[in-house]
Amino acid sequence: MLVWGSFIGLIIIFLALDLGVFHKHEHVIKSKEASIWTAVWVTVALSFSGVIYWLFSNNIIDNPTGLTPNDAVLKYITGYLIELSLSVDNVFVIAVIFSAFKIPAIYQHRVLFWGILGAIVFRAVMIVFGVALITKFDWIIYVFGVFLLYTAFKMLKSDNSEFDPKKSFVFKRLKKIYPITASINGHDFFVKRMGVTAATPLFVALVIIELTDILFALDSIPAILAITADPFIVFSSNILAILGLRSMYFLISRMLEKFRYINYSLVVILAFVGLKMLFSHHIEIPEWVSLTVISVSLVGGIIFSLLITEEKGE
User: Fold this and answer.
1) Beta bridge pairs of residue 196
2) What is 55-115 written as a DSSP string?
3) pTM to 2 decimal places
4) Which of 89, 234, 272, 277 has its CA 20 to 30 A from that of 201?
């Protein structure tokens, strides 16, 4: 419990420094700043693999799956890369939501901060639930495997139809249960006028981002559980990837068109992880193979996107 408490305390410190110190004054986050913060979060996450090695080599943390220190590090990095890659879809949806509700760039970081905070809580619950299921029911891994294959197939067959947050079920229900104003009042989530408290577009965007993240977690968490059922590795790799999502959004949201073929990389990753789950009781796939497949898929998708863009520009 000391390790878990220390890790959660560290996350709270990161969040407090983020909003209370480094982003105390609201401003538009430019690409240069976003790239620096993305590098910082990736460095922090990858450096944490050293902590993972230390914890498992000194038996400081419970090791229910009997991992060696080297295996624990490989599984952590693999899980982190899976979550990071699947976050690309989150970035696209977040960009659409901000555009639909006309959220000024200067307030987007504030919305994402609270969105990430909520995502950490929801994902912690889902991870505990998912680990418990896999630990208690061996057959549930086949259900997760089929679900990931179905998700990969659905992503492959996607007709690229535009997602309209204002036509979503969540927005329609929110309008019925709480007054919503179309005007933005600084960074406030609520505004009181003529004795009536109404939600601003910032709050509406926050709620929709929060709920869509839960839907994305239905893909990413089973994918990480295919790598390991160790709860601390699953939780730490997932949360550290989530912390870097905000800076990643500001870095790549302006370049989404350049990387429009990255979805094929996600299809390959989800399909691979789904198949790994289905054959987990029959074939043991080394972690370096999983790490290689994920890395090559991501790099391949980026390179392919850039090459196609250049050809079209000629």
Assistant:
1) 193
2) HHHTT-S--TT---HHHHHHHHHHHHHHHHHHHHHHHHHHHHHHHHTT--HHHHHHHHHHH
3) 0.79
4) 89
Long-range contacts (CB closer than 8 Å, 24 or more residues apart) made by 198-205: 199/174, 201/101, 201/102, 201/103, 202/101, 202/103, 202/107, 202/110, 202/111, 204/101, 204/171, 204/174, 204/180, 205/97, 205/98, 205/101, 205/103, 205/111, 205/165
Q: How many residues does the chain have?
A: 314
Q: From residue 173, how far is each of 164, 207, 210 by CA, in Å?
A: 15, 11, 15
The total of structural domains in the chain comes to: 1
Task: Measure the CA–CA gap between 162 and 168, rounded to whole angstroms.
Answer: 12
Residue 250's domain comprises 2-313
CA distances from 278 to 19, 88, 133, 224 (A): 42, 25, 16, 14
Q: 3-class SS at 230?
A: coil
Q: Tell me the per-residue pLDDT of 79-107, one tens digit each, with 9 for 90 and over.
A: 898 888 877 777 777 888 888 888 888 88
